[in-house]
Specification:
3-stranded parallel β-sheet, 7-stranded parallel β-sheet, TIM Barrel, globular, 34% helix, Glycosyl hydrolase, hydrolase, 2 domains, alpha/beta
Length: 418
């Protein structure tokens, strides 16, 4: 596949047992799931070991669990699927998974305690090293939205500063690199990093650390509530986050991975899921330098499993019985169109100024959130037919920076779309 063609994949949610499948690992069931994913024309999956099961004690990383992860990766390779592995789970679909050696009687800050961080580093290095010789191994993601443990609204957060978050990310990215040199190792946060003023994980961390920037786009964050399921801001939310990330990026062509995006019911009704999927992906791929799109998720969650938020049961491209849903068929059509030679997007020449305060900590980044001046201005411009990107206020007069990005016009949120 040429570098101009984006990658298309799914976050792998096992159809049998959800992520608890690691407790009763069934390679035949995994192979059947992967067959159904490959049947959509996808080229990669993102995989989620459960941290407490793989590292139940700080100095015990279970060899059998690591072996099963490798077996899954090899099964994916047999079906033409590359694999990215998220190490620290961490948090998945409203449930927290933290090992006992970080909790209650052993309560320690998972971002700053030196013993905990050393254990995490060795765990990530071990997983990366186990897959380092597999040609289909893309690289590691540190963990799934683990930033949610660092502050509110989590009920029991491990509070840290932005400087501590940066040191933690750097330490663990280095551990991934030590295990599998030269692979694409990255980190991924939920959108508090971009939208919440006091959040310790910052846009600068997201856009400047790791091999690429990961974006997780969910419209239940106030976007769909404010703009409706078919509103411009809703259908362009992923594209907005991709372009927002570029304001902080250290280079004009830093790749951005739309690593999670989904159609959450009832904010996106079931009968509108396919149209939302097509619009969201098409709009995201109208952004230059998109490495790939990875849908959340591959398979629906079985109704036999209790206590999930209602929306989590129906996010799959495939049913729990491995049948393609309308959203899955929409993704398959998009994949086929791009592989038939669709042209990559032109540069975005109009830039919206982002003034979130200090560039490193972004203390006023809520201007970027739904309802904020930058967010709403981006939606207005897009509704008028423009293709905006963003630029930090500190760079908005830097001719070299603007020229490198192909930006020919700069506008403030107050003047945008007026």
């Amino acid at each position: 596949m040429s570098s101009s063609v984006p990658r298309f994949g799914a976050n792998y949610t096992p159809s049998q047992g959800w992520f608890h499948h690691w407790l009763d690992f069934d390679l035949d069931a995994v192979r059947a799931d992967l067959d159904s994913i490959a049947g959509l024309g996808l080229d990669h999956i993102r995989v989620f070991p459960l941290w407490p099961l793989f590292q139940p004690n700080r100095t015990l990383i279970r060899p059998r669990a690591v072996e099963q992860l490798v077996q899954l990766a090899d099964a994916a390779a047999e079906r033409g699927l590359d694999v990215n592995v998220d190490g620290l789970q961490g948090h998945l679909s409203s449930f927290d998974f933290l090992p006992a050696w970080t909790q209650t009687w052993h309560r320690r800050n998972i971002f700053t305690d030196p013993d905990v961080v050393s254990g995490q580093a060795e765990y990530l290095r071990t997983l990366a090293a186990a897959l380092a010789d597999r040609p289909n191994f893309i690289g590691m993601t540190i963990g799934n939205e683990i930033n949610q443990f660092s502050g509110g609204p989590h009920p029991d957060p491990d509070r840290i500063s932005p400087a501590q978050a940066g040191r933690w990310l750097t330490r663990l990215l280095d551990a991934c690199e030590a295990g599998a040199p030269g692979r694409l190792h990255l980190h991924a946060e939920y959108d508090a990093a971009w939208y919440r003023d006091d959040h310790p994980f910052t846009p600068a961390h997201a856009a400047r650390l790791g091999a690429m920037t990961a974006v997780h786009s969910w419209v239940f964050n106030g976007t769909a509530q404010r703009h409706g399921p078919t509103g411009t801001a809703t259908e362009h939310h992923a594209a907005y986050m991709i372009e927002l990330s570029k304001a902080w990026a250290p280079s004009p062509d830093r790749p951005v991975w739309l690593q999670e995006v989904g159609a959450p019911a009832p904010l996106v009704p079931a009968d509108a899921a396919a149209a939302f999927t097509e619009a969201t992906v098409a709009n995201a791929l109208d952004c230059p330098d998109v490495w790939g799109v990875t849908w959340w998720c591959s398979h629906d969650v079985s109704r036999s499993l209790a206590d999930f938020p209602e929306l989590e049961y129906s996010l799959g491209l495939l049913t729990n019985d491995r049948e393609a849903k309308p959203a899955g068929r929409a993704i398959a059509r998009i994949v086929e169109e791009w592989r038939e030679g669709k042209k990559p997007p032109e540069p975005r020449t109009l830039a919206l100024v982002v003034d979130a305060g200090d560039d490193e900590t972004a203390p006023r980044r809520s201007v970027c959130a739904p309802g904020g001046s930058v967010f709403e201005a981006f939606a207005r411009l897009t509704a008028q037919g423009a293709r905006p990107t963003t630029v930090l206020a500190s760079r908005s007069d830097d001719r070299n920076h603007l020229a490198a990005r192909g930006i020919t016009e700069v506008v403030t949120p107050e003047r945008a779309g007026s």
